Amino acid sequence: MKESFCKEDSKRETTKYRGMGIRWNLFAFLALFTVFVLLVVYIFQVLLLAPFYENEKKNELKLTASVIEANIKSDELKKTIYTLSGDYSICAILYDIDKGHAKELVSSHISSGCVIHNIDARNFGGLYNKALASDGEYMKTYSLDALSSTVYVKTINDDGKNYVLFLNADLAPVSAAIKTYTMQFRWISLILLIGALILSFFMSRVVGAPIIRLSRSVGRFAKGKYDEVFDGNGYKEIRELSDALNYASDELSKNDALKKELIANVSHDLRTP
């Protein structure tokens, strides 16, 4: 039996300090949250930058076409096209289609590498036919030497009159921006992880101090110091636990006093004939 108790005591001693403390647990949680935030930023700012940029440029082309279609009868149509072309850096050509013949109404040429201002009539006809076969709109991206260029074709019908609108937007290369963001991402990751470590240190001092004091008091209490007073300063849960431990300490102190008194009385009775 004595050997069994010794083994239990030895086991308690070996498992006493197992596991991480509050400081490292806080750092682990903060580090995981930091990694999650960085992962989200990396996905949206680096991996998805090019698709988002291309999608935004395509939306600008569709928005421009919708505004031009809405102002097709306006006396300010030409001014509207020039304004939109300058605001969104979009080349534009509007044709009036009459009996299979195309007559240019408005042309805005803002880029020397503009595709729609550098293709022949045959390619124009091919794009127009594809738009007709695709419910009145067609989009195609051309890969040029240094960049890509997206052409959007939209057919417009207004009171029996037919028009076709060609819009063209250059897609600037984003590889340089991705490299810059990647370098910034590395530095931001390092700074945030260091910040998480420092923050966890200070948080552990604030959050963990009442727990550490309580743990030390419990250690003294476990060694037989039943008059130990548990400090309840801190959080609500710590105060509740301290009150419960103080109550247990009082009860054990009373029991210890009664035990000593009983032993003293029994010893006295045994010594007295």
Written account of the structure:
The protein has about 270 residues and is α+β, with helices and mostly antiparallel strands. Helix content is about 65%, strand content about 15%. It contains 7 helices and 5 strands, in the order ααααββαβββαα. The chain has a 5-stranded antiparallel β-sheet, with helices on both faces. Helix 2 (about 20-45) runs antiparallel to helix 6 and helix 3 (about 50-70) packs antiparallel against helix 4. The chain starts with a helix and ends with a helix. Mean pLDDT is about 80; it is low at about 1-15.
Name its key features.
alpha+beta; 17% strand; 273 residues; 5-stranded antiparallel β-sheet; rod-shaped; disordered N terminus; 7 helices
Largest sheet composition: 5 strands, antiparallel
Q: What is the beta-strand fraction?
A: 15-25%
Structural class: alpha+beta
Across the major sheet, the strand order is: 2-1-5-4-3
How far apart the termini lie comes to 35 Å
Helicity range of the residues?
55-70%
Rg (C-alpha, Å): 40 Å
Give a quick summary of the entry:
By secondary structure, the protein is an alpha+beta fold.
